[in-house]
Amino acid sequence: MQLKELTDYLEGIAPLQYQESYDNAGLIVGSHETEIKGVLISLDTTPEVIKEAVEIGANVVVAHHPIIFSGLKKINGKTYIEKTIIDAIQNNIAIYAIHTNLDNIYVNGVNAKIAEKLGLAETKILAPKLDVDPSGNVGSGMIGQLEKPLSEIDFLDYLKDKMRLKVVKHTTKLSKTVRTVAVCGGSGGFLLPNAIAAGADVFITADYKYHEFFDANGQIVIIDIGHYESERYTIDLLYKLITEKFSNFAAHSTNVDTNPIKYH
Predict the structure, then answer these.
(1) Domain spans of the chain?
(2) CA-based nearest residue to 117, from 142, 83, 134, 152
(3) Which one of 92, 219, 222, 245 is most buried, by most CB atoms within 10 A?
(4) Model confidence over 215-232: pLDDT tens digits?
(5) Which helix (H) or strand (E) holds 11?
(6) DSSP letter string over 73-92?
(7) What 3-state class would DSSP assign to 150?
(8) Domain 104-228 superfamily per CATH
(9) pLDDT in tens, 146-177
């Protein structure tokens, strides 16, 4: 089976035109005519992930984050990006990225997976794209309702349990119950006004800077759970989508922890 059949399937779920303008989703290394021997699914593509693919006999890496975002003037192995590309080419491994186009879909999207892990009901896109058909099913973030209200401290414990978190950063608790929850995998700070306007009690995302936490302004609790941590279940999402559709090649979830941030 050729790689094009897999990429056509994934792009049928998350069309490339749904990615953000800064993004670089799609086939980054390799040919669509590649015969698939095996697929390795990861959040990032690193030299360690390429090595793992070689060891398990996979010649395709499907990653969430693109290994290349902007132009490269040299490829001499001095950065992890250059080394990853060199290793992939030398080992005939294709790299495909499915990034903000997967973030921006309602069904089978990154934020839908987070909402599923948190048991949210009555979910909808937090910031729908108005220029897409069908409207309301494509856009950034997601908002939904907990089955039952929780105190803020109980919700933080619940969140840590469901998302396998060691620690979270958050703004001052407001002594309110939590029922309406807004989420955005990855860097979602731009959606804070949408979360507040939608009446969310908490907003869960990642990559908040110090001064940005002040923007909660006593209206909402911002919870930064970490970029990798917010998207780790995307690997499970992609594994399920691929294995339910194809049985003529082996698909594997990576065993490499690509999170560059460590906690002590």
Answers:
(1) 3-101, 104-228
(2) 142
(3) 222
(4) 999 999 999 999 999 999
(5) helix 3-13
(6) S--SSSSHHHHHHHHHHHTT
(7) strand
(8) NIF3 (NGG1p interacting factor 3)-like (3.40.1390.30)
(9) 999 999 999 999 999 999 999 999 999 999 99
Q: Convert the pLDDT of each residue in 104-127 to its tens digit.
A: 999 999 999 999 999 999 999 999
CATH topology of domain 3-101: 3.40.1390
Structural contact between residues 39 and 252, judged by C-beta atoms closer than 8 angstroms: yes
**C-beta separation of 18 from 229 below 8 A:** no
Distance CA 134, CA 138 (A): 8
HEC letters along 219-239? CCEEEECCHHHHHCCHHHHHH
For residue 117, CA distances in Å to 110, 159, 226, 263 come to 11, 9, 16, 23
31: closest CA among 84, 88, 79, 87?
A: 88
* Strand-pair category, 202-206 with 60-63: unpaired
Structure tokens at 60: 């395709």
pTM (two decimals): 0.95
